[in-house]
Amino acid sequence: MNFGRGPSVVLNVGGTRYSFSREVLKDFPLRRVSRLHGCLSEQDVLEVCDDYDRERNEYFFDRHSEAFGFIMLYVRHGHLRFVPHMCELSFYNEMIYWGLEGSHLDYCCQRRLDDRMSETCTYYAAEPNGGPEGKGRRPPGAEGRKWLERMRRTFEEPTSSVAAQVLATVSILFVIVSMVVLCASTLPEWRAPENRSVEEQSRYTAESVREPSGIIEAICIGWFTAECIVRFIVSKNKCEFVRRPLNIIDLLAITPYYISVLMTVFTGENSQLQRAGVTLRVLRMMRIFWVIKLARHFIGLQTLGLTLKRCYREMVMLLVFICVAMAIFSALSQLLENGLDLGTKNKDYASIPAACWWVIISMTTVGYGDMCPITVPGRILGGICVVSGIVLLALPITFIYHSFVQCYHELKFRSARYSRSLSAEFLN
Predict the structure, then answer these.
(1) Could you say which of 80, 129, 132, 283 would form a disulfide bridge with 74 (CB–CB 3.0 to 4.6 Å)?
(2) pLDDT tens digits for range 256-314
(3) By C-alpha distance, which of 330, 323, 356, 361 is closest to 339?
């Protein structure tokens, strides 16, 4: 510290005094306090604190003393929690003043802060122009970048503006219409007979494009294709855009249509493609991936995807539990029901792979009843299998549930943040 005298300094926060040595201030965890170490003049000191007493080398901060006491507990012990009976947003303001962030809070307090900020549609961010002095100063090309950013938010964030909400509504309508057409195409009156030849199936597919359902399908595909192309053009990182799961799903939903059209055009009556009709039906059925496009507009589906992404270890652990139990119970059930040859053979358990089906439906408590043990030892084993399935499935689900709640609060807070900007747009 280059200003003041004495081996120690005193911080007076709201009437509560804290004494520190000069060397401690150099690497102090609170950024505002550590800035005192580099002050060269009294003017520099007054930019950091509210007042200064040269004789006692005491620095005054007109802040909440109890909140600073809890912040000091974080400095000493590494745990930061809210002050009881204090507004979460007020404590968060104190944290920002001293140089802390929301990530420094314990997990339970982070959830409380996210809930409160989501309810009040409040968020804290730096000024984009660097304060009042930055207004009016725009670097070359700023208008173009601003337009691209606005376009990107319009297509990526459905609640960021009125135009984004209109675009999201239109996209949802196209998804619903395409799903209705897909479901209606499987009705007996609409479906092509299964005994059509390859040539007839090809002609039927080509004619279906000119039918009303084919026209609606082509319009929907055209909309999805145009939307995907525009989003690719305005994206910041093209490689990252291609790697995103939702964009991959968009490609899986759009590509089969063009493949089926090309196959119909180029194969024709080619006898070498005996299963062309089956391939086309499979490609057309891949339109079901359009349903996942709704994840762009609904927090619930986004929460599900984010939870699966973050909890893949727990999901793998759950599958390992099920596979281990399946191997044990299927082998034992096959032995008790069919392998001991006690005069009562159950043909449903003729092999271990056949018994695996019974184990999986018993552990998940579905119990279709299509196969069941008939011997007393087999029934006892079945009861143990059901109980163990409940226990094994419940263990990792607890972790998945907590991650689901956390992901939901994160996405809800982000949606509330953009809703706030949408409200400002309406006011303007």
Answers:
(1) 80
(2) 778 777 776 766 544 444 445 566 666 666 667 667 767 666 777 778 878 888 888 88
(3) 330
For the chain, what is the domain count? 3
Question: What are the helix (H) ranges across 157-197?
Answer: 162-184
pLDDT tens profile 335-344: 888 877 666 6
Amino acid at 406: Q
Give the Cα separation of 388 and 406 in Å (integer). Answer: 29
Q: Quick one: 228 and 337 in the same domain?
A: no
Question: What order of strands is seen across the sheet that includes strand 8-13?
Answer: 16-21, 8-13, 58-61, 51-53
Residue 42's alpha-carbon distances to 38, 48, 56, 128, in angstroms, are: 11, 10, 14, 31
Contacts of 302 (CB under 8 A, 6+ apart): 295, 296, 411
Cβ atoms of 79 and 73 within 8 Å: the answer is yes
Is there a single domain that holds both residue 161 and residue 292?
yes
CA dist., res. 408 & res. 315, Å (int): 18
**pLDDT tens, 396-409?**
888 888 888 878 87
Does residue 287 sit in the same domain as residue 203?
Answer: yes
Q: Compute the residue count for the chain.
A: 428
Q: Identify the CA nearest to 220 among candidates 204, 233, 232, 209.
A: 209
Look up residue 129 and give its two tokens.
Answer: 């122009």
Record the tokens describing residue 32, joined without a space. 């505002």
Return contacts of 165-170, CB within 8 angstroms, 24+ apart: 165/422, 168/296, 168/297, 170/223
The dihedral region occupied by 404, where left means phi > 0, alpha psi between -120 and 50, and beta the remainder, is alpha
Give domain status of residue 132, yes or no. Answer: no
**Residues 154, 167: contact at Cβ < 8 Å?**
yes
Q: Which residue type is seen at 394?
A: A
**What domain range includes position 54?**
8-126
The per-residue DSSP string of 297-342 comes to T-HHHHHHHHHHHHTHHHHHHHHHHHHHHHHHHHHHHHIIIIIS-S
Whether residue 51 lies inside any domain: the answer is yes
Q: Which alpha helices (DSSP H) does 13-130 contain, by range?
A: 22-26, 31-34, 42-48, 65-77, 88-98, 107-120
Beta strands, E only, 243-316: none
C-alpha 356/C-alpha 331 separation (Å) is: 8
Task: Identify residue 334 by its one-letter amino acid code.
Answer: Q
30: its two tokens: 């609170």
